[in-house]
Structure formats: C-alpha cells, structure tokens
Specification:
The chain has about 190 residues and is mostly helical. It is built from eight helices and no strands.
C-alpha cells in the first residue's frame, strides 16, 4: 500500500486519535468542509443532505443517526453521502450539549416548568426484563420532544450555510475551469499558427 504507516497504530493510539485528532479539531472540521464542498451534486442536494445529517444528530437514538439521516436525505431529495458527513455534527464534543438541551426542553414541554429532579432508572432491571418503558418515559420521550425545535433550527441554519457555501464554491470552480480552458485554447491556437 502506498500511504501505509511504517509502524501500525496500536489500540491505544487508535482510541486517542478517535477522541482527539492527531493535528487539531480545526483541521478536522476543515477536512469535512472540503469533503462537502467537493461533492458532485446540486447545491440543494448537498445542503439538504447536510441538514438531514444535522437533524438526525439531535435524535436520542444513538447508533441509528446514519439511517435516520439517509432516510431524511432521501425524503428531502438530498445527497446521502452529504447526510453521512452531516452527522459529524453529533460528536463527543457536542453530544453533552445536545442531550442536555433536548432533555431539559422536552421536560419543560411535558411538565410546563424547568425542574432539577431526575427520576431514577434501574438499568439492571431494564436490561434483564427488556423493560423499555422504564427508559422511555423519564428519558427518551422528553429528549425526543425537546430535540425537535433544536433539530429544525440547526437543520435550517446548516441548510442555508451549506447552500450558500456550495453555490459560491461551484461558481468559483466553474470560473477557474473556464479560465484554464480559455488559456489552453489560446496556447493551442498560437502553436498552430
């Protein structure tokens, strides 16, 4: 393989890079941005895909974000690869804020007030008897209801930002390619004369 490491990364190194990037978070975000801008699709398809990924990241159904994002992207006529890249919005740095915000807002919608008491959950009994109702009422239901306003607001925000960015990038790329094509045509025209 051409770009393989001389010393393969061990389990600890892989875990460290998964949690904290080798270079920096800014470079990782820049990489995702470039990946999104360089997709070959219409600006609407890319923006709808990214928005679907961001919306799916707000759902409390961890492990299903890619599937939710792909389904939303399909319904919105978005790019499915862009939706997968958009799910990067939900990451170890943002999940605590996403979960706390959606849980608190959901509890406020359900109870009509913000209160600090959190009901106890017995995980042993939950897994032993597969009693999902014990997790649904105190945790999942408030998170699902509370995530909707955040998901719609952030989805719309990321749709607009992505649409404008992709449209600008694609126009600049067409301009550069047209300029390069004209220069090459002029060079070929001068050589034949």
């Amino acid at each position: 393989m051409l770009f393989r490491r001389r010393n393969p990364a061990g389990a600890f190194e892989k875990m460290r890079v998964f949690i904290w990037p080798r270079r920096s978070f800014a470079r990782s975000f820049q990489y995702f941005g470039k990946r999104i801008l360089r997709l070959t699709a219409t600006p609407h398809a890319i923006a709808a895909g990214v928005a679907a990924g961001v919306i799916a990241s707000w759902s409390p159904f961890i492990g299903f974000h890619f599937f939710i994002a792909a389904a939303l992207a399909y319904l919105l006529a978005g790019n499915i690869l862009a939706s997968a890249l958009g799910t990067a919005f939900g990451n170890p740095l943002t999940f605590p804020f996403i979960w706390t915000g959606s849980y608190q807002l959901g509890r406020h919608f359900l109870n009509g007030r913000f209160d600090e008491s959190v009901p106890g959950i017995h995980l042993g009994q939950l897994f032993r008897h597969l009693d999902v109702h014990q997790l649904w009422d105190p945790v999942l239901k408030p998170m699902l209801i509370g995530c909707l306003p955040f998901a719609l607001a952030f989805g719309l925000l990321f749709y607009v930002l992505t649409y404008v960015s992709v449209l600008t990038f694609q126009k600049q790329r067409k301009r550069r390619l047209r300029k390069k094509r004209d220069v090459n045509a002029n060079l070929r025209g001068e050589q034949t004369v």
